[in-house]
Amino acid sequence: MERSRYHHGTLPDALLKATALLVLESGVAGLSLREVARRAGVSHGAPAHHFGDKAGLLTALATQGYELFTRSQCEARDGAGSEPLRRFAATGYAYVMFADTHRAHFEIMFRPELLRQDDPALLAASNAAYDVLRGVVAEVQAAGFIPGRDPETVAIIAWSQAHGLATLWLSGNLRRYDQHFPDFASIARAVFLPGGLELK
């Protein structure tokens, strides 16, 4: 079945897609390798063959998530032009929108207890994502904004703001304010694009 349905190298992607769908449907607690295989339409041993165990499968999903996340951050930053504050704001906005559009990945990426934290691919992918934030913080400070503050502290504050908003939204805690905003994008714009700052 696997050979007939999947070309070389595509089966792991199919298993990750099935994993993401199951995380959305039933959460991590309800995830099993057997169910992932069933959903992907392959033999029950396929997930273990490619990823080893549940932690390996989730680590691969988190790694994929960080790669997608970094790409979205870079695209938002580069699409915002050359003005440092605009680029900085764009990454914050892209952060929370990624959480909304890639919920399964986001759910797994920040759950270290579920992952192989020393996995080289995961470390490289997560570091690349954080380096985007460090980069825009450096740009903002070089332009004279947020002077005299340790850049690592500024980066953590910015990360906390974006992650906090994303988590509040995904957990449903912002639903009570729906009457003030038509959708989550409007909330994100209000938080990250104050004072009329707009993105292209």
Topology:
Layout: H1 2-5, H2 10-26, H3 33-40, H4 46-51, H5 54-79, H6 84-101, H7 103-109, H8 120-142, H9 151-170, H10 184-192
Helix pairs in contact: 2-3, 2-7, 5-6, 5-7, 5-8, 6-7, 6-8, 6-9, 6-10, 8-9
Short description:
69% of the residues lie in helices and 0% in strands. With 200 residues, it is an all-alpha fold.
Which descriptors would you attach to this protein?
mainly alpha, 200 residues, 69% helix, 2 domains, 10 helices, Tetracycline Repressor, domain 2
Structure commentary:
- The chain is an all-alpha fold.
- The protein has 2 domains: 52 residues, Arc Repressor Mutant, subunit A (Orthogonal Bundle); 142 residues, Tetracycline Repressor, domain 2, CATH 1.10.357.10.
- Helices cover 69% and strands 0% of the residues.
- The protein contains 10 helices and no strands.
- α6 crosses α7, α6 packs antiparallel against α8 and α6 runs antiparallel to α10.
- The chain is globular and about 55 Å long.
- It starts with a helix and ends in an 8-residue tail after the last helix.
